[in-house]
């Protein structure tokens, strides 16, 4: 599975959009980009995932570049509760035979400030 | 009620003791996983199971064993606990989109 690179930390003002970048330059055509977050020692929480099209759900938007070598997670209106470690993970999808083995890196610690 | 539950939430044990961490899920998923997390690090996979008859080792299975008693239950055992197994342990399940749903974690301290 492709390796990802994220900045170790970022700050964001409450109410502003938080844009978290991720580089995955070795991603292959059948690998998806997943984002999870972990709020202080709680279980990681799924946010969003995508293959090549931009995706949006009630939590966030995912923007994937046309060459798929990088992506950005956007939290449109960050709140203090969004302070967490955000993990960008690339996972090959094999369908029913996939191992689903997430490889967690160091992630980005997002601090939302009042 | 939470979809993925873990018991106990906190446990202190002594070196050499056998302990079991339990995980239950109500999501009806076939796949279940056990991870450990050490301070400041990401999660590492210990064992995973695709169904009750399928158990697979992850990247750090030494010193651990698992039991898949039913679709909904997946237990992790430390046969003889040692201090470097002190960590935060997470159970997870996966749906067909590979989205993983994590339990709240078990904080284990081995003295």
Tell me what you see in this structure.
The complex is a heterodimer of chains A (114) and B (111). Chain A is mainly beta and 114 residues long. Chain A is 0% helix and 46% strand. Chain A contains no helices and 9 strands. Chain A has strands at residues 9-13, 18-23, 31-38, 45-50, 55-56, 61-64, 70-75, 84-92, 108-113. In chain A, the strands form 2 sheets. A 5-stranded mixed sheet of chain A has the order 1-9-8-3-4, with no helix packed on it. In chain A, strands 2-7-6-5 form a 4-stranded antiparallel sheet, with no helix packed on it. In chain A, strand 3 and strand 4 (45-50) form a beta hairpin. Chain A starts with 8 loop residues before the first strand and ends with a strand. The N and C termini of chain B lie far apart (33 Å). Chain B has strands at residues 4-7, 10-13, 19-25, 31-37, 43-51, 54-57, 64-70, 73-78, 87-94, 100-102, 106-110. In chain B, the strands form 2 sheets. In chain B, strands 2, 4, 5, 6, 9, 10 and 11 form a 7-stranded mixed sheet that branches. In chain B, strand 5 and strand 6 (54-57) form a beta hairpin. By secondary structure, chain B is mainly β. At the A-B interface, strand 3 and strand 4 of A face strand 5, strand 9 and strand 10 of B.
Per-chain topology:
The complex is a heterodimer of chains A (114) and B (111).
Chain A: E1 9-13, E2 18-23, E3 31-38, E4 45-50, E5 55-56, E6 61-64, E7 70-75, E8 84-92, E9 108-113
Chain B: E1 4-7, E2 10-13, E3 19-25, E4 31-37, E5 43-51, E6 54-57, E7 64-70, E8 73-78, E9 87-94, E10 100-102, E11 106-110
Parallel strand pairs in B: 2-11
Antiparallel strand pairs in B: 1-3, 3-8, 4-5, 4-9, 5-6, 7-8, 9-10, 9-11
């Amino acid at each position: 599975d492709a390796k990802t690179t994220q900045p170790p930390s970022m700050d964001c003002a409450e109410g502003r959009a938080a844009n978290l970048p991720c580089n995955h330059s070795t991603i292959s055509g059948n690998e998806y980009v997943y984002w999870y977050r972990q709020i202080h020692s709680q279980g990681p929480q799924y946010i969003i995932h995508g293959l090549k099209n931009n995706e949006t759900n009630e939590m966030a938007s995912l923007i994937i570049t046309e060459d798929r070598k990088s992506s950005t997670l956007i939290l449109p209106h960050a709140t203090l509760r969004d302070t967490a470690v955000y993990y960008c993970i690339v996972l090959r999808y094999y369908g029913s035979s996939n191992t689903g083995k997430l490889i967690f890196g160091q992630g980005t610690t997002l601090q939302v400030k009042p | 009620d939470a979809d993925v539950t873990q018991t106990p939430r906190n446990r202190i044990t002594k070196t050499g003791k056998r302990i079991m961490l339990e995980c239950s899920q109500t999501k009806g998923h076939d796949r279940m996983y056990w991870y450990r997390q050490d301070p400041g690090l990401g999660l590492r996979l210990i064992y995973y199971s695709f169904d009750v008859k399928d158990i697979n080792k992850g990247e750090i299975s030494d010193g651990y064993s698992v039991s898949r008693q039913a679709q909904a239950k997946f237990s992790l055992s430390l046969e003889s606990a040692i201090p470097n197994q002190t960590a935060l342990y997470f159970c997870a399940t996966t749906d067909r989109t590979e989205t993983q749903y994590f339990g709240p974690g078990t904080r284990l301290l081995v003295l």
